[in-house]
Structure formats: structure tokens, C-alpha cells
Amino acid sequence: MPPGCTTDCVTAVADGGYPEVFNNESVDGSFGVTSPILLDTITPSGHTMRTLDVPSGPNGDHLVSSFSSKSELGLNLSTNGSALTFMGYVAPVGAVDVSNSNTPGVVDPTNPVGESFYRAVAELHGNGSFSYTETNAYSGNNGRAAILDSADNKLFMSGNAGNGSNPQPVGVIAGAGAQLTTPSTLPESEQQVGQPTPMGGFNITALGDKADKVGKDDNFRGLTVHDNVVYLTKGSGGNGVNTVYFIDTTGKACPSGVGLPVPGAPLPTSGLSYNPATLQSTGLPENMCVLAGFPTATKSTTSFPFGVWFANDTTMYVADEGSGSNTYDAATGSYTDAAAQTGAGLQKWELSDGSWKLAYTIQSGLDLGTPYAVSGYPTGDNPVTGLPWAPATDGLRNLTGEVNPDGTVSVWAVTSTVSGATDEGADPNRLVRVTDHLDATSAAGDTFRTLRTAQSGEALRGIVYVPGQ
Description:
Distance between the termini: 45 Å
Radius of gyration: 21 Å
Low-confidence stretches: none
Oligomer: single chain
């Protein structure tokens, strides 16, 4: 391993059994195994009504996930609510290290994974049919979410790129972060896939900080559109700022890197213009801002935003996935760093006096840092890490919500985990729900309820509320 390697190849330390197979990450940092994607339709209380298998066979259009890539498969409705979108890989089930492979049109020769696979956006239409749009973006890493702008027939995407040495190739830098493309109506086998089209760029030099690795400031996870503005989050990686961003299509919102969207600004309709000759040294042009009030500290160890949901123009909820630290205390039987976090969970932010302010964070019921049992999952300790297999909640990732007639909001989210697994993205996680009052000033009385715990061999990723279903 990795597949296709020519130098520095390693030997697997575990066979294909779950979850032990992911111990191979201890010798292969790119390790992952592609898996089928299942879409569950559930009631607000968590009852599963039906399950739809996303086509994953080799004969015809198909898409898979890269289990255990925990940042993937964000679900979003199109801007007019007519289609559901998400991202995956055009690869067979059971393929290894696909999430760190190159894309066919953007090959980094220093990437240790010597294989290439397109990333693709899947659209699920109201009649139950799928269509797919392949892209060369996110070479070396993963596309995480997509939203269809129905009015202009454009796809907005978020993700990360690069799995090789520095400086990264031009195509990798241009194919990172916030991307834009036009949906295809052709079968995957007939699509002519061009070069990536970046629609947003951010550089920490806009905040007065010293430049770091070009392309890695644009390592985005969450993606949403509200009031004609594209918002993205960054919550991981050793570069840049973990915070909430928006794309400024006016060039006037944030002369110093921080600001608020300009009222009436249009959504992006075209990609950024950039000079390939200088991209490796200067990065993409900057047209993104840190949302005023959100963190601006580089390489944060306390802020890990993922999903964003707006209840209205002045109230937004942000899922913080936690630090990922699996420091464990055998005496108390808990993951102490996870349990001690104050920002992990569901953050409620309110806009006032030209800036967003954190009102409070809802954690009750998440049992941060407390291990839980999963039927069929190993007990005891993982011999590779010496820590318990049992996962514990570390925070929240993707989320969705609905404003209720009585002035409350219901928020559903999937959890992040810590454990003794070598790759915690392979942990069975949970779907949780909480009710909050829009006019509340504290989290008193707000408690999460677990609606579903993933089974052994399963991971929960995206969640979206579909009105009227």
C-alpha cells in the first residue's frame, strides 16, 4: 500500500475485517475503503420510512463513498428545493485509498496513491432518478458537499485537495476549496471533464498573518446558501483559520478579510480569474471573508465548525465537531479532552450591532467523552492503539433544522466521535435531535435526544430537512 505506489510502499497490518481493517491507517496515512451510499428517508422522530440505494455497480452511472472519510456526504437541497445533492467518487466498491487518489485530469506525481478517480456530484430528483456530474476538482482529497443553484443552473461545491509535497501543482491548488461547475445531462461515460473552476479563495495574509501552505487555507467542510450568499466552514487541518466564511461577489464586504455580506449581492455565476504562472506562490485571488464575529485565530485548537443552518436572518446554528483528541482516562472510563470541551456541540449565534455573537452552546444529552456500546462492535481495547474500541461523542458535524409554529426550532445533527480506533471516521456515530427556543438567552432545558446509533459497519453522514415529505 498505497495502491499504485512505486516508492515507500508498506505492507498491510490488518485484513479486510471491520473495523480492524482501518488499523491499516497506522502504516498508510491515505487508507480508506470505498463503500455503497444509502439514503434513508426518516420522520422527524427518527423512524425510517424507506431506504434508497445509490447506484454503485460498474455497469452504468454510479457513485460511492470513501468509508471512513468522516467529512464527506453532506446533503443539501437545491436553492428551489427540487433536488438533493451530495458528492462521492466514481470508483468501484471495495477500492482502497480512493479519497486520497488523484483525479484523472489533475495528477500530482508526488501523491503516494498512484491511482486516479473522478469526484462527482449526485443529484437526486423528485421522481427518484439520479444524475451525475464528474469533476477533476479535489485531486488528492475529497469533495464534501454540493448545492445546485437552480436559477443559474450551477453547482457549488466544497472540499479539500492535495496529498503530495509542497509546492502543490497548479491544478491541485485551483481544484481545492470552493468550486463551481455546470451540471451535466450526459451519462458519466460520455462526459468530457475539464479542469477545476474555483469560485472562492481565502488567504490568511488578508488578516495580517504570515502566509502558510498555498491551497490549504481553502480546506472547506460545511456548505450552505442563505439569502443568496454562499457560506463555507473550515474546521480541520494545520493551516488557515477554523471559522465560518462567505463568498463576497461584490468585492466590497471585507477589505481587511472580515465582514458581513452586502445586501442584494448576487450568487457566484462564474469562476475566479487567476494567473497559473503565479498560483503556486500567491494562491487564488481572495474573494472570501471571515463572517464578522467568528474566530480569526490561525491554527485554532478551540474552534472546529462544520455544518451551518440559518433559522432566520439573525439566528444561525453552527455544529462544532470537537478537537478529535482521544486522550483517555482508564480510571474514569472517559475521553477527558472530549468531555472538557466548552465549544463542541451546537452553537447558537445571533447577529446584532454589525457582528455575529455566540449566545450559547448546547451540549446536554450528547454525553461528550462517554463511551457507548454498539451491537456487534468489538469490546475491549484495540491492540494497535491500546485504547477502547467503544466510541464516544466528540461534537457534531452536518446538521439541519426547521422553525416550528410555536417559536421553537428543531435541529437534527450527526455526531463526530473519538475512540481507540486508528481511524475514528470508521466509528458508528449517532443521529441526534434537540429543540431550542428562538428567543432563549441560555441553553437551560435544551437536551439532545439520540434518534439512531449507527450499526457496526455503518456510519451516518449527511442530514437534510425536506419540507412536506
